[in-house]
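User: Okay, second chain of the day. Same drill as before: sequence in, structure tokens out.
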Amino acid sequence: MAGIVHGRVTVASAGTAVRFTTSPTPLKYLLIDVPSGNTGSVYIGDSTVASNNSPAIARGTTREFTFRHDAEESPGELSDFYVDAANTSDVINYFAVTI
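Assistant: Same drill. Structure tokens below.
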């Protein structure tokens, strides 16, 4: 049964990737919001995400991810996502539709 989850991830130390969640959370859809109150850009990726290996997402913008879930492809997984930031204490907000 589909559900909704949402949250905020804070980068406590710039240059250190922070995992969205440790709980397994299969996804159909993920929206990431980078608040305009942030000091700088953020970077989304896997556990190795950093400013030198991921595109910058500017403050005040959003990014959407839609995942297939059928016999050919697995759903997305929220616990696979990490965020890093150019500045300490910057955040992202997320909204997800789960499977």
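The mean pLDDT is 95.

User: Thanks, on to the next one.
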